[in-house]
Sequence to fold (157 residues):
Amino acid sequence: MFNDKKSRYWPEIIKQVLFRGQNTYKKTYIMAKLVIFLVFYFFTGDVLAQSQNKIFDYIVSGNYEAVQQSFTQQVDICILSYEALVNKNEATAKLKEFFSKNKPIQYTFKHKGNSRANQSAYLVADLYTQNGMFRMFVYLSEKNGVTLVNEFRIEKS
Fold:
């Protein structure tokens, strides 16, 4: 079955395994389903990651209203040596204060993780500013289908 040199390439192997003895219409139909599945599989994960990363986009662009809307009513905020549980307005003010001294340039997304029940998640990113690099940690939780930020940390890298 796989004796000739051409069939050693994986597309040929897939064709030979999937389409053995089938007519051209069936081959096209199965291949189209496979392509659609792969497109959704790869792009859906990317879209979900992007929606969670929006908090970092808001910070780099200076959109503090959107940052404030993504916070829960009480936010555990930790910026360098400052650490407190504050309301969302105070948390936004602290972020504005920090970023007025450390103008964000860009971020690099590093890592994310979810709880088993997908009720909470965390995100980690490196933030490049005019005054150096910082690491941002965001802890998110989902309630009633809405994902909000519970904890926001900035540490010196």
In short: The first helix runs from residue 10 to 18. The domain at 39-156 is CATH 3.10.450.50 (Nuclear Transport Factor 2; Chain: A,).
